[in-house]
Amino acid sequence: MTTQLSDRVIIIGGGLAGLALAQGLQKADPPIPFHIFERDTSATYRAQGYRIRIWGDGADALKHLLPEHLWTAFEATCAQLADGARKLDALTNEVGEMAIPKGALPSGTPYNADRATLRSVLLAGLEDKISFGKVFEGYEVDKNTGAVSVQFADGTVEKGRILVGADGVRSVVRKSFLPELKSLDIITSGEHGKQLKLFSEAIYFNRGLEGAAGFELPPNYIYWVLCLRSDLVADGRLEERNFLNLDSTESVKLAGDLTADWNEKVRSVFDNQNPDATSTLSFFICDPENFKSSWENLRRERAGEPVVLLGDSAHPMPPVGAVGANTAFQEASDLFDTLVRMYNTSSPSSTGAEEELRNYETRLVDRAIESIRKSTAGAGNFWGMRPLAELKPAMVWR
């Protein structure tokens, strides 16, 4: 059996959601043809971020997508869970109780995943289905055949049946497909917003499961996030654009400069950090009303385009309360089921391809609106984020 390249699913972005979707497509019976195009030049091009927690529906969705041996590997590579939370005065090193607002976290027991290790698990078996160093530029839809042609910065063009934008919070696919959706800068208010906040957790892996996992576990480590407003950076000469594009060495220096007057025991977290694993990230969010209206206008003006979005590409939100990744995995699972129905024309539930994609979008919007609201509440509780009406459009650079 041969597959025409124009019949495949083109996935832009090799992050967690795009890779999880790809694993499902490869597991399908029969497999659904696809290829992933990632702008980074390799899987290890940059620091892959932080530990993430995967709960309930998000975990069920990931299990639905993965073959059994990779689900086993995922479980075996997750870290142990610590009970409760404490707060620490950074200047005095005094320990106090930390109250978690009711409803701030999902119910149930989460998986505590190392993001880089999880990405390695999700990449397994996809080595010949992903191309690195491919920077998305735009797309065109053939009005006669419905095929989509994707243009890349290197001048190449790839054709497929469906285009999936899974290229993250700075999604270039979204910019082309859903230009009305605005990303908002997360701005904090009052004294609450002027404080540096350090969130940290000791990550311990189950070494006895390493053999069963089939993947090398990283050394145990302290995961930490230093949260601040970009306009409070000590060096006033540092423009926001540069602030959001610091490399690992510059990020290490910034963390040290910002915490120079902290207690030396607390500062040991930064003094002993792994520079290769340190990065500076920006957090954005979108307004539920703008989000909903953008999708409604899209259906009226661009109905029929074989393009869909997934995860942060569809709805920027801060990583608070384990909402973002779990929502993305649920969408990947939903999109996988949608594509199975589209490609399996003998399925009794098959409808038109356009209707299937629009139904997926409807479910995405309904699910994402609830997730955005939860994320908004979490950002208010933990960071003192201002009301959405007071937030300004973000300057999002590629």
From TrEMBL:
Gene3D superfamilies under this entry?
Answer: FAD/NAD(P)-binding domain
Q: Which domain of life is it from?
A: Eukaryota
Which residues are the signal sequence here? none
Q: Identify the residues that the record assigns to the FAD-binding domain, covering every copy.
A: 300-348
User: Which keywords does this chain's UniProt record carry?
Assistant: FAD, Flavoprotein, Monooxygenase, Oxidoreductase
What cofactor is this protein dependent on? FAD
This entry's Gene Ontology molecular function terms read: FAD binding; monooxygenase activity
- Claim: Flavoprotein is one of the keywords in the record: yes
Any idea what this protein is called? FAD-binding domain-containing protein
Biological source species: Orbilia oligospora
